[in-house]
Write a structure and sequence with these properties.
This protein has 219 residues and is mostly helical. It has a single domain, classed as Methane Monooxygenase Hydroxylase, Chain G, domain 1. The protein has 6 helices and no strands. The longest helix is centred in the last third of the chain and has 36 residues. The radius of gyration is 19 Å and the shape is elongated. It starts with 12 loop residues before the first helix and ends with a helix.
């Protein structure tokens, strides 16, 4: 049988459905983060972030519940013993990606960095690249469940968007340190740019491990 066509959970649709719901949650986290950052910039840092923060907090809690459910099912149903460790690691890595987005949004809400207006467009571009890297990592994970041969089609997109995010981050930091802002404020803004960019780095880490898990399944 062609291993590339095997569904990972071909014997039980329920576990695959729960894993799919978990991936939906991570994907929604990326969308929520991007829209939350945009809303923050539109309010010039003075608006109410409670609704956006609650949205991503709820997604993180939902993701935790779904992750635990899938982990429980993998053990109690004695599923995929050869690949269980890889799937559990993938779940943890994706959950960590969602946690980073939640932490970054929480830090924005607490610290309220005052980004100059002239940086807003580039910050939105950075958030877009980060969200696209997250989505590509989710799509690669979906392929790992259903059609292992197509995983690579999505992994290269994660790398592309991560590099885009790195370039946009570098541009923003150069602009920050070339400005007349006080040094303490420059360092504050730089830290947030790095924190946002780190989300794409986390997505790349998911992709790197997923590439290894894929090779093992096809071996």
């Amino acid at each position: 049988m062609d291993k590339s066509k095997l569904r990972l959970f071909h014997t039980t649709k329920e576990v695959e459905t729960h894993f799919d719901s978990f991936l939906d949650t991570v994907s929604q986290g990326g969308i929520s983060f991007r829209s939350g950052l945009s809303a923050y910039l539109e309010s010039a840092g003075n608006g109410d972030m409670a609704a956006k923060l609650k949205q991503i907090n709820d997604l993180e809690h939902k993701g935790d519940e779904l992750r635990r459910q899938v982990e429980h099912e993998l053990y109690t149903l004695a599923l995929i013993p050869d690949f269980r460790g890889d799937v559990l690691s993938l779940l943890e890595d994706l959950d960590g990606l969602l946690n980073v987005m939640e932490d970054t949004m929480g830090s924005l809400d607490i610290e309220r960095p005052a980004f100059p207006q002239e940086l807003h467009a580039d910050l939105r571009k950075l958030a877009e690249s980060v969200a696209m890297a997250v989505e590509a990592a989710v799509m690669a994970s979906r392929a790992f469940l259903r059609d292992i041969q197509s995983v690579r089609d999505h992994l290269h997109k994660v790398m592309f968007y991560e590099k885009e995010a790195d370039g946009q981050s570098d541009k923003l930091k150069r602009a920050i340190f070339a400005s007349s802002l006080p040094l303490a404020e420059k360092l504050h803004l730089r830290r947030f740019v790095d924190q946002i960019d780190h989300i794409a780095d986390e997505a790349e880490d998911v992709a790197d491990w997923l590439a290894i898990y894929t090779i093992k399944r096809l071996d």
